[in-house]
Write a structure and sequence with these properties.
Number of strands: 0
Number of helices: 6
Largest sheet: none
Shape: elongated
Radius of gyration: 21 Å
Helix content: 55-70%
Length: about 140
């Protein structure tokens, strides 16, 4: 049987790692953003006679947009989300079972939803190929 994508071992491992880290990446991204948000209390200038509020919200937004760690995490999360949109409902279910929840192997996920072993391998190859394209692993 011919697969749609020819994926070498290194690419497969990298893509599977990104899929397994997706939920963690989303959580880390939210934590990084939250850590950069200013408190609800307005800060004022310490200059006597000046009552101007600092532009902390604007500065924070600029910092979030420029932070390399946040940019990197955003790119990875968005790439997986783009790939998921391109997948069929069956493929998305395999990804969720095998990579997001990690309670079964990719092959086990396909078998769990009623696919044959051969059909599961085809689906997994297609899933990893789409994800590799979005993650720019090819």
């Amino acid at each position: 049987m011919r697969y749609k994508y020819k994926i070498d071992r290194e690419t497969r491992v990298a893509v599977e790692h990104r899929l397994r880290r997706y939920e963690t990446d989303k959580k880390e991204l939210a934590e990084l953003r939250a850590a950069l948000l200013p408190s609800a209390v307005a800060r004022y200038s310490l200059t006597p006679g000046s009552h101007e509020a600092h532009r902390s919200t604007e500065e924070t937004a600029e910092h979030i947009m420029d932070d390399p760690a946040i940019k990197h995490l955003e790119a990875r999360v968005e790439a997986v989300e783009r790939a998921m949109k391109r997948l069929s409902p069956i493929d998305r279910r395999i990804v969720k079972l095998a990579y997001f929840r990690t309670d079964v192997t990719p092959t086990g996920a396909g078998l769990k939803i009623g696919l044959t072993k051969s059909a599961t391998y085809c689906h997994i190859n297609y899933i990893l190929g789409i994800c590799a394209e979005e993650l720019h692993e090819f």
